[in-house]
Design brief:
The chain is an alpha+beta fold. It has six helices and nine strands, in the order αααααββββαβββββ. The protein is 37% helix and 22% strand. The protein has a nine-stranded mixed sheet. Helix 2 packs across helix 4.
């Protein structure tokens, strides 16, 4: 993943807009803005994205009246914050016992899991639609002429130990259990393997095609693990 891709993902997962107080729905516009600045100033290589680029020099160029063809200052200011975030992150990682979650690895794991699930259900002639941004309690809807399945997707970088459902996901998994499926993709970043669990109301467990089960420990949401 190059710096531009990391910047885009950071905008959509970590960055908080001063205007909306939310993440950006898409960071594409900001990446396009920086690319325009690279072209405008004829910067070599990765330009602004290069870790060795003097951002104060770039800011001075942006502030010159003759360069003010279009206001890319908000795009540039966001990138400055992105650079500061990474510097702080690297400094924190150098401190002993300081645990830092790799947000980008987690994001890539989730993307791989979603892609694997969509590919599987499309191979079975389902039409798959994303519900990830709708906060409905599941990630995908898979529809054919007989049914619509509600798919909650969980991506793991290793094997199944446990997964967690949010209160909204767990509520819907109980209320819509007939059509609700837990799609767990293990080894998502290396060799993705999809396991689909359906709810067995008689035993109060989730089982897959091999009759392996997920036990339930109710919390505010739920913790589940494979035996």
């Amino acid at each position: 993943m190059n710096t531009a891709e990391k910047f885009k993902m950071w905008l959509e997962t970590i960055y908080i807009s001063e205007k909306t107080q939310k993440n950006l729905k898409t960071g594409t516009q900001y990446v396009t803005g920086l690319n325009a600045l690279n072209k405008l100033f004829n910067l070599p290589g990765e330009g602004i994205y290069d870790i060795n680029t003097n951002l104060n020099h770039i800011r001075n160029l942006i502030n010159k009246p003759e360069n003010f063809q279009k206001d890319y200052s908000s795009h540039f200011n966001a990138f400055v914050k992105f650079r500061e975030y990474y510097i702080d992150r690297e400094n924190n990682n150098e401190k002993p016992l300081k645990r830092q979650i790799d947000v980008f690895k987690k994001q890539q794991t989730e993307i791989s899991a979603i892609e694997s699930t969509i590919k599987y259900f499309e191979s079975l002639d389902y039409i798959v639609m994303s519900k990830e941004k709708d906060n409905v309690g599941w990630d995908l809807e898979a529809t054919n002429i007989y049914e619509t399945l509600l798919l909650e997707v969980k991506g793991l970088s290793g094997n199944i130990s446990s997964i967690e459902l949010t209160p909204n996901e767990y509520k819907n998994s109980k209320e819509r259990s007939t059509y609700y499926k837990l799609c767990i993709v293990t080894n998502a970043l290396t060799k993705p393997k999809l396991e689909i669990f359906s709810f067995n109301s008689e035993k109060n467990i989730w089982t897959n095609a091999l009759n392996e089960s997920l036990q339930i420990e109710e919390r505010t949401g739920a913790r589940m693990w494979k035996e």
